[in-house]
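As a warm-up, study this chain.
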Amino acid sequence: MAKTAFAVVALVAIAASFAAGLSGSQVTGSIVGGSGGYLAQGEYVALLTDQPLEVAGERYWVAYSYLPATPSTRNLLIAVNDNTGSVEVGEEPLEKVFRLVSAIDAVMYLEKNKLSPNDLKAFLESQQEQFLGATDNNYRTLVKNQLETKYPALDFSPVEGALEELKAEHAETNDQVLALFEARQLAFSYYAEQDMGAYVDVYNETLEKFGSLAATYRKYRAALRTKVDELANSAELNFSDKENIKTALEKLGGNPEYQSFYSSAVQPGAQVFQSVLDRGMKNAKNEVASTLYVIAKKEAEKAYTNELQSKMASLTDSKRERSLAACGIEMQQLREDWGGVRSVMENPSNSTREAYLAIPERLSKIALDAAGVEQREDDCINAPAAETGSKPDYSLVVNVLVFAAIAIGAYVLYAKYKKMRETPE
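Now compare it with the structure written out below.
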């Protein structure tokens, strides 16, 4: 019973270790980095995120290589399956992973350039406090309580309507920013492609909403200017009244930053945001091709061992080949096969991914063929030497003579016996 319980606990522990997946240090230390990894000389490796990305039902750690002099420049992206621990080499899943990386890059660009949800929320709060709230109070004090009482015939409803519209647009923009917070929370909780895609969509909608807010503010300013110009040309008002009304309405204009914030930050940020997205989606296939080329090249280099190179250098040495030829061992095909491999491995600028992909299998065959040559050579060198000047073999003649002697002796004995029987007593 105790043994059974122990076995169950062990199986649960093993299952839990697989369910836990890889650690980030495993990915950077032994899979992508390390002696068996995929880094070029002088490169370092880092993780894109602190947890795997979720793409099409799989989880992938994404690591990138970089040089210390330019740490922000990624030389290579590699995706490692969190469940299997293997480097992803499928073109379709890898392209999906890289598209998700592009989405992350785009939203992180905004967050690092003063357009994060927190930045947008802080801006709206400042405008509410410094302008909108004060303007709403001023309108009630100056227009409702003073101007409309003193000049009941004047119509200030266009200004009031524009102000109410601006307040509503500000509130809607604030709600949109709250939705952006929620989308971000979900996107960065699991790094799932659908959640990150939703975050990108909500970000686009939010930036557009700031454009609408700026436009609504321009409409409000236009309503103020129109009313000031209208009253300035009024024949029913004296100069003093006109100046009083103008001063009151100008106080309603204030100096908010809706337009300047949109023009200097939101609009250019949105353009770069879309550019990063478009470029990432467009270049995803090229990124995949680059990654798969490096992986294939590294796998070929692993198979192209120093040991095998030394062995082949020895076997293809001209003196060694003459010795092999003396044993009747033909080296032409093996030499050609090895030459083809060397042509790929020693000319990387002219070698394709397909050529590198074939190298491990080609080297396996070469290694087997080389071992066969060495075995045949050893058999040839250690074979027993043939005897020379041997004596004639008389064993057959001797055997015949012995048999004949026995037969003659038997006949003589039989003849004597017969004779003795025929002689009378």
